[in-house]
Design brief:
16 helices, 2 domains, 14% strand, seven-stranded mixed sheet, 11 strands
Length: 408
Amino acid sequence: MSVKKTILIICGGGPAPGINSVISTVAKVFLNDGYRVLGLHEGFKGLFSEQPEIKEIDFALADTIFSRGGSTLIMSRFKPGTEKLNTKLFLENNVKLLVSIGGDDTASTANRITAYLQQENIFISNIHVPKTIDNDLPLPDRNPTFGFHSAKDEGVRIGNTTYEDARTSQNWFVMSAMGRSAGHLAFGIATSCHFPMMVIPEMFGNINITLDKVVRLVISSIVKRKIENIQYGVAMISEGIFHIMPKSELDKIGIEFTYDAHGHPELGNVSKSHILNMLVQNKLKELGIDIKSRPVELGYELRCCRPIGFDLTLCTLLGLGVKKLFDEGKSGCLVSANSRGEITPIYLSDLEDEQGKIQPRLVDIDSEFSRLCFQNLHYLDESDYEAAKKYLTNPSEYDFKKILNEKQ
């Protein structure tokens, strides 16, 4: 058995800018206190392997990876089932703390593992660092999850270049951005780039989202701009619309979607922007409107970029927070930092609703910022009907506000 006390770091789920920054900070602060720091490849899969791939993290490695994108530890979405936990890994390395980096599923799995270890008379702490570029974890005071601002910044860089191409070429682009449960990325990128149209799930409230409605919202913006003699633009659409569409709508696309264990369509297998762009092109052709549009997908391009200064600071604070909570004897919790830089533990029970589920944090569509942004998009309203008749037989079908209030 290793005499030196050890902490073990694992990463679950998908990449997010700042993972290396968290690993680096956690490693440095524990190394400074005399601990050995190990990283485990392939997340929980490594914990259930008889031959786990372990990475020793010394100061030189921690210092090298701090500002890099991606993750020095290979990630995995593995969820344990009937596999046997490798308890020797904890005993032989004298592990005192399991640090997990990931979403709420990763956090709950870490809790179950430490509870099982306790039944085997192996007592370790576990502290979780929450991450998602979707920014949909309901942290207190609407604090962002690490990685979101860096992913948004990379998306804005691509978005601004795309908008410049649209202006230069006098074309349109249909852009899709990641965000399964919430439209934070799409909203943040679209507003930062002054796109004339954006479509996010939160806009629809309890009204059904259909492909036809999404296409008409894009056409509404195209026609509005044509009336104003602007022949170009970018329409941003969150991939989240596909997740709350009824299956009957997805079937209209003609693509055989695969579904994950939770029943969600696995949208990473297809280009959402390509699908939507083709639907827009077909509608434009039907209407006799001569506008070219092209698809741009913002997905995996955002996940492994270098973290910006905001996330470097936040990840440093969260990494230091892991040590603070551990020294205070906290376990089974998420580390959180507020706007004043104060570290507090959050337990999954603090985030769960009455049914024991964590509801995603959505874009606050009723906030003043949201209302001002949506008011200043380019779309048709009743004052445009007469001018729009040059392009549309029935302009009211493309009225932005009416589309969002259609029951079907």
